[in-house]
């Protein structure tokens, strides 16, 4: 059965569960595509083609170390089940609506994980600088972060879509992290518009939390 694997749960993470509970090396044993964050919110994680990247608080990309720890991350072994192309989309809501419409026959309360490659007219991303314990609430930390807007840029959206039954385990609906084609920029996607994306997605039937002890 196709599976999405993750360290911790979103419910635990958003309730100040920011201490790393497993290493990047351990995470990559379970998949070669996905995203998450690092210990004490030290940047946004993007895993693409088996390579772990870290977007720092300025959304500049660094290669992550295999010993870096993560409090929350989602990955899968990327063997796509469906390929498709998309035309113009004017924002995040429009992108998600078009994806759901195009994939509705394959969703059926399943999870999707994969990538959208192409040219983006404009994309707004953010990342995080590390925080200190005792931790503030996640919403308060994110609200302070600087957003970076990139225009006319090629890159990849690494995305996951989870249905309602995944609530508290992961994000419900679509969630995207971005990595530019030149591996210079990346982070969590707030808003996006573009044209002509090539998509490849894997259909997963379950979410399994990794036993990292």
TrEMBL record:
GO molecular function: acetolactate decarboxylase activity
TM region(s), chain numbering: none
Domain of life: Bacteria
One BP annotation, GO: acetoin biosynthetic process
EC number of the protein: 4.1.1.5
Reactions that this protein is recorded to catalyse: (2S)-2-acetolactate + H(+) = (R)-acetoin + CO2
A Pfam entry, by short name: AAL_decarboxy
UniProt record similarity statement: Belongs to the alpha-acetolactate decarboxylase family.
Keyword list, A-Z: Acetoin biosynthesis, Decarboxylase, Lyase
Record's signal peptide: none
EC category name: lyase
SUPFAM superfamilies according to UniProt: AF0104/ALDC/Ptd012-like (SSF117856)
Pathway where it operates: Polyol metabolism; (R,R)-butane-2,3-diol biosynthesis; (R,R)-butane-2,3-diol from pyruvate: step 2/3
UniProt name for this protein: Alpha-acetolactate decarboxylase
Record bears the keyword Amino-acid biosynthesis: no
